[in-house]
Amino acid sequence: MTLLEIKEIYKSYGDVHILNGVSFTMKKDETKVIIGPSGTGKSTLLRCINQLSPPDKGQVWLNGEEITNPKSNINKMREKIGFVFQDFNLFTHLTAVRNVSIGLEKVKKIEKQEAHKRAMQELTRVGLVAQANQYPAQLSGGQKQRVGIARALAMDPDLILFDEPTSALDPELIGDVLDVMKSLCGKVAMLVVTHEMGFARNVADEIIFMEGGIIVEQGSPKEMFTNAKMARTREFLGRIGALYGDEKGG
Amino acid sequence: MAADFGQFFINSLPDLLSGLGNTLLLTFVSIAAGFLLGVVLALGRVYGNKIINGFCVGYIELIRGTPLLVQLFIIYFGLPSIGIIFTPIQAALLGLSLNSGAYQAEYLRGSIQSVESGQMNAARSLGMNKLQSIRHVILPQALRISIPAWSNEFIYLLQYSSIAYIIQVTELTAEGKFIAAHTFRYLEVFAMIAVIYLALTIISTEIIDRVAKHFSIPGIGAAKRTSLRDL
Q1: A143, A201, B17, B153: which has the highest count of C-beta atoms within 10 A?
Q2: Quick check: ipTM above 0.90?
């Protein structure tokens, strides 16, 4: 069953065309990884999906409902779409557990104690029970990002968007975050923008290669890594593989 | 001489204390009313559409661009000519609140804008609407950041509430002037008043510091003020 359908998304900032007609679909619980050079519109695409930056043209459908329709209740739709940010964006004034429970309390209107219980479960899942009462400033980058993932998971989303979730982390902290993401595979749909080739290769159901605001090529990891059709894809994968290592996080 | 001053001090105290009551009334009501007004104006400036933003900017510039004294004169002496009459204390409360609101709005606006934009993005991504995001995510951070500036505004109001004596409010300074005019002991009277203001300032600074400490959270601004006890 189709979970997400992106149809011909265009987005410009002033004269700069970021996205020039991007279309793809995702099935329930599928993991897709978007790769491509910087400035290609990968992050913008994620922000177009949950309407943090509404697209200029094109449609986004989730579970058969059009998010891009101005009449749709965007806040309700966003409950179903988790977002994990490159720079975490944890709520600075709340402890780890409150970061996870606040959405349950204020958006889902779940009673405070129940929300706390659920939040603790999510923190257990990402291995951070001991840090539950610490503030973001007291957590390491990797811990922050895992709280960010727990915060998204607590809302019971159908889809989680990951915007370069490990790019701001020290190398030795990346593994913990990738492990948590891997553990989610097949349980929730994930759309991941990343340069972690190991993750893409071993975890993704499909890899999407973007450049210049369009999808250049997409396919299974096996096809993309061993038998890419486009010369540009092969060149990019070769270069990024040498830089980041194929096996890391794999 | 010393004994004489002691007696004079004791005789003057009841009048000074009654004036002090009005000073505190003016300060507390105006800081609170000004705070509520300031929050609304600041939010209007940061998140309002063109019309709301324009209105807020206009109000803030008008108030900050004219002397408090002139504002009080307009309220107390000017408005009666169009049929709006206030008692002195009402006029002073209104004037100080409207004035403080404009200044507090600017402190708060700075604090709101210093909260990273990612915080709003994260709140909206969870499904909060704009108002929920402001209430549960932006304001709790912005208010903490603004405490030092707000502490300044409180002390400013405490002292500048003395200007209300010009529209016949018998607050601390006005009582002092009255006593001095009758006894010709200007130096002693105003020295006493200066000491009272100083004491109030030190006490309130200390209280605000403790409040700030109580609400402080690792990672959120509000650089520690040096209090007198640390010197």
Answers
A1: A143
A2: yes
